[in-house]
Amino acid sequence: MVDPAGTGSEARIRAILARRSYRSFRADPIPAEAREAIRAVLDGAPSLFGRRSGYAILVDDARAAELPGAVMSGLVGKINPWLLRSRPPAFLVAAGDSSGGLRDGERHWYNADAALAAQLAVLEAAGRGIGSCWVGGFHERSVAEVVRLPAGHRPLAVIPLGFPAVGPDAPFSLLGRGWDAMAQKLISGRRKPLEKIAYRGRFGEPFVDPGELPGAARGVEGGREAAWRGLGASRSCLRFGPRPVGPAELRLLLECARWAPSAENSQIARHVVVEGREAVRALWAAAFPETPSPRADELPALALLELGAPFPVKARTREQPFFLIDVPIAVTNVLVAAADLRLGWQVAFRFDQARAAAHLGVPADHQVVAFVGLGEPGEAPSGAAVSPLDQVRAARA
Ligand SMILES: Cc1cc2nc3c(=O)[nH]c(=O)nc-3n(C[C@H](O)[C@H](O)[C@H](O)COP(=O)(O)O)c2cc1C
Predict the structure, then answer these.
(1) Residue 116 is part of which domain span?
(2) Do 117 and 31 lie in a common domain?
(3) CATH of the domain at 387
(4) Which of 201-215, 339-353, 376-390 has the highest mean pLDDT?
(5) Does the C-beta of 330 come closer than 6 Å to ligand 1?
(6) CA 97 to centroid of ligand 1, rounded, Å
(7) How far is the CA of 280 from the centre of ligand 1 (A)?
(8) Rounded to a whole number, what is the distance in angstroms from the first to the last CA of the chain?
(9) Does residue 228 share a domain with residue 207?
(10) Could you tell me if 336 and 251 are in contact, meaning their C-beta atoms sit under 8 angstroms apart?
(11) Residues 346 and 234 sit within 8 Å (Cβ to Cβ)
């Protein structure tokens, strides 16, 4: 279980549970070591088939000073006036290749790649005491111009990074700490209980919460995570061993998904938990009807079918719907937590989603986004074919 005293294990899980959005920053620059670590995480971020249709970049040069104005120009960015005041020393910009990136119909998978890369960087920052806030309300053309995105690429989120302005010595202003406190209280403060967002075996069967976990204090105010040794490489495993995922591990994985940031704290990510290799095999047969029956060592002990619930707020843009951003962010939290629990993972975004939905009773108004496999990591024999579940992988050389 989580070790709140911080003795060294599960530092990544503690960072996930402690991360909260900050909207007011100190002027201090981000140390070079932290910038290097964040860049390394972005460079190593896995993506769908290693294609890097989407990505995130760290903006820590003169362009950072221009980004608040770019975000705020135009109507949409006006919802974030705090950015003009907070002047963070750096930003992450999540973006993707809208013209040449991988897509299936209207689903532009660059959203998922970019969300994954940016959330990995957000967690690396959180472990180092650096605050962040995903921002989806910004003026797209101005941001693309400031960061000089290539033609055909589109930004989908702007994320200020900086040390949070908290504590008695931080100056107060309405758009600074005042806005931060108000956003926490009115938007971000609550989380849906687990049984409202997770299901056991089939959509609609609530995952009954077997007891509260010790809650993490807000954010990174206590400074850097004492035991932080970095996120490490985010790599899928090649095969799975037979060890089941225990109930406490499962609970913790779902808790990490629950604390993921989401647009307007809508928490649209839903998780259908499928336990045991035989149940996973049945889901696999629905999801990959064309592929031969999986070998035992291709089957994870646990699967999560990751869904987006209907969201009353209109999509960010037609090709950047929130379910393709928020759900991959929650998945990222799960994958990072899995590493602390010594679990391996594989993730697929491309599969027969309609059949998988029918198999688990997912209603038509929910969007199936990802099939996540989790279990004891195993090695594949050399020359073994890549499993159809193993789609989120390191970038091609
Ligand atoms: C895709 C996305 C877009 C967001 N856009 C904004 C935004 O425009 N302005 C803002 O203040 N917060 C924004 N947020 C932050 C959410 O409000 C915040 O994550 C949520 O309230 C949960 O709070 P927490 O991050 O403190 O846990 C966004 C989050 C996500 C994931």
Answers:
(1) 11-187
(2) yes
(3) 3.40.109.10
(4) 339-353
(5) no
(6) 23
(7) 33
(8) 38
(9) yes
(10) no
(11) no
